Amino acid sequence: MASNxxxxxxxxxxxxxxxxxxxRKIIAWMGRKRAVGFDIKEDVVGGAALDKHGVxxxxxxxxxxLEADAVLFGSVGGPKWDNVEFNKKPERGLLRLRKEMxxxxxxxxxxxxxxxxxxxxxxxxxxxxxxxxxxxELTGGVYFGEPRxxxxxxxxxxxxxxxxxxxxxxxxxxxxxxxxxxxxRKNRVCSSEKANVMHTGVLWREEATKLHKExxxxxxxxxxxxxxxxxxxxxxxxxxxxxxxxxxxxxILSDEASMLTGSLGMLPSASLGAPDATGRRKxxxxxxxxxxxxxxxxxxxxxxxxxxxYAMMLRYSFDLSKEADxxxxxxxxxxxxxxxxxxxxxxxxxxxxKKVGTQEMGDAIVKxxxxxx
Length: 373
Ligand code: NAD
Known about the structure:
Blueprint: E1 6-12, H1 16-34, E2 39-42, H2 47-53, H3 59-67, E3 70-75, H4 90-100, E4 105-111, H5 124-127, E5 131-137, E6 149-152, E7 158-161, H6 168-183, E8 188-193, H7 199-215, E9 220-225, H8 226-235, E10 242-245, H9 247-259, E11 268-275, E12 281-287, H10 304-318, H11 321-336, E13 339-340, E14 354-355, H12 358-372
Parallel strand pairs: 1-2, 1-3, 3-12, 5-10, 8-9, 8-10, 13-14
Antiparallel strand pairs: 4-5, 4-11, 6-7, 11-12
Helix pairs in contact: 1-10, 1-12, 6-7, 8-9, 10-11, 11-12
The chain binds nicotinamide-adenine-dinucleotide (NAD).
């Protein structure tokens, strides 16, 4: 169906194409049943692009990504390309997309589905109903700051340097994403840094506070040191709604939070850029997991992380909240009905579990969408 929604699909390597095939079924369903169409372009990325073009992302694909309203990404990498030179590694394709699209805000929801509550490493009463959104600053901070590198000192010792730098504008734009998102959720933001020991932390706290006062005073803002937050995420995660933090702390805290939910196969993410004149942001949606070479081609991959990434795309790039809710409800109901891919079986205690493969899980979602519609 022709539409003004331009989507670039990059399935990638390993299980990427397998889980993307299941999302295609949902895309087709949305076109048929809800008149939600996309103009879809598809290209190769990662190892697949390396095989075809000799680079992990072609200039053509990069151009298409910059023109698209959203990019739906699978995963990249695998043993076949483990020994290629650093600049050609499959992951460089994803890093190029993030950099050239200037995707500075990484959104990682940590939501516990009731049906999978036993898969969490925490007690059910602590994680029940958990629904946190972690926003990690993605393009600044210590992973990029100069000077950086390893040098040899006059006495022969070696010294390594990484530099944590943040500018006002970098802090404000990611905090703005957090405040705006909180308004659509429970209206609470926890901003996290280490203002007690780091200058970037002091600036982060001052700028978050200033922006809050200027534009978002209707949202409840609190500040928490990152180490305290790491503890609170395990002690009492239900107190959080939206958490916003820098690149390094966000990397660690979002992994910690995602494990509260149990399985890698369930976790979506979104990376957003700055809004253009029409308010639309460049955006890339992808599951947290990698290309899972150990199960690729076996029909075992859980397609729900990619499915939930697609739901995030509907919500954040196209303002289709009802359709996003529908997909998320279908996922919840299918889990409630006992459908489990192999990765979800370990912690599951549901009595009548139905063990399914990738395609059966995708089909179950479409069937549930039919029932809900
Ligand atoms: P991985 O996420 O691919 O796999 C870790 C474990 O989780 C494996 O046992 C895998 O079978 C399982 N798993 C992951 N996703 C699953 C799913 N949807 N359903 C069922 N089980 C699932 O991480 P890894 O093994 O460290 O990396 C494998 C490759 O993926 C490497 O080449 C790595 O560089 C790449 N990688 C890519 C991305 C990305 O594309 N964004 C992210 C992480 C890793």
